[in-house]
Each structure stands twice: as C-alpha cells, then as structure tokens.
Amino acid sequence: EEKNPVKAQSLLIMANTNKQIIADLLKMTVPKTAVTVHLNLVNNLNQNATLLTDMAKILDNPYPALESANLYRVQKLNFYKALEGVNQFFKTNNIIFSSEEGSEVFLTI
Hints:
Layout: H1 5-27, H2 35-55, H3 62-92
C-alpha cells in the first residue's frame, strides 16, 4: 500500500543475510551424526532467502511477492523447527555452550 522501495529493499538485505549465513554454514565441518540437522537448517535458510527475495519484488511483481509472503509465514515455523532440531541435537549429545557462545534469532513478519 505504501509503495515504499526502502522497505522492499530491506527484505532483500534480509535475504542476503540469510545467504551469507548459508555460505558460512556450508564452510563448517560437522560430525556425520549432525549432517541431517545441519542440512535441514541450511535448506530452511535457503527457503527463507528465496521467499524474501521474491517478496522484495513487490513493487514490480506484486502477486508472486504476496504469495511468497503467505508462504513465508509457514516457512518461519519450519525454520524454528529446524533450529529446535539443532538444539535437540546438542542436548541429546550433551553438548553445552557457555553463555558467551549463545546467539539469538529474530524473525520479522
């Protein structure tokens, strides 16, 4: 409704951030027991990046952008599940991190 290109551009910035995280994750060496969880997280981040990129095209191609926005709401839940899978892997394998090693994830609607 606002036709604000700055807001549309912010979606592209978020997509690029996801792509950088993917690149960093793909450089990691993970134990064989963690490969499935690791790839699930990578695939979810890739899906996020794809949907955000499509959403950023709202001013040029509104219908697919709105469809991607609807899919993004569902994808967000899948991403949280992927993160929970990583956390569960750490718990199951008794991997404990110090408070300095923690991170926070913020998702926007």
